[in-house]
Specification:
single chain, alpha+beta, three-stranded antiparallel beta sheet, 1 helix, 7 strands
């Protein structure tokens, strides 16, 4: 008689543990099913922007930007000079039309600390 009670008690305890573990999953599934409308499909944005390769040699910076996409991209070369007295520069924006490559360059009086290209969409 005692072994039947133990088995029953163990079975009830196991059922309670399983129910406790599955409750959050069931609530989440019910919320998704009860929302009615499916999430709207958001289309992926079209790829855009030129690919730029920047090289630093001594005090000169050169960047080549190629735009393989069907929209125009505006690129701007930014140069940070290593010396505190050397003027950092933000170049003018250059339009890179579809299928075109542009060369943009800048220089410091002495060493170049860093250089990068920023992008903005054509207006």
């Amino acid at each position: 008689m005692r072994s039947t009670r133990r088995r029953t008690w163990a079975l009830l305890a196991a059922a309670a543990v399983v129910a406790g573990l599955l409750a959050p999953v069931a609530v989440s599934a019910a919320n998704r099913a009860g929302s009615g409308a499916a999430a709207p499909h958001v289309p992926d944005p079209e790829p855009s922007g030129a690919e730029c390769r920047t090289s630093v040699e001594g005090s000169r910076v050169v960047a080549y930007c190629h735009n393989p996409y069907p929209t125009t991209d505006h690129v701007r070369l930014h140069t940070e000079c290593a010396r505190w007295w050397d003027v950092d520069a933000d170049g003018a924006a250059v339009a890179v039309r579809p299928g075109r490559t542009v060369r943009i360059e800048d220089r410091c009086w002495k060493e170049v600390e860093s250089a990068w290209v920023s992008h903005s969409a054509a207006s």
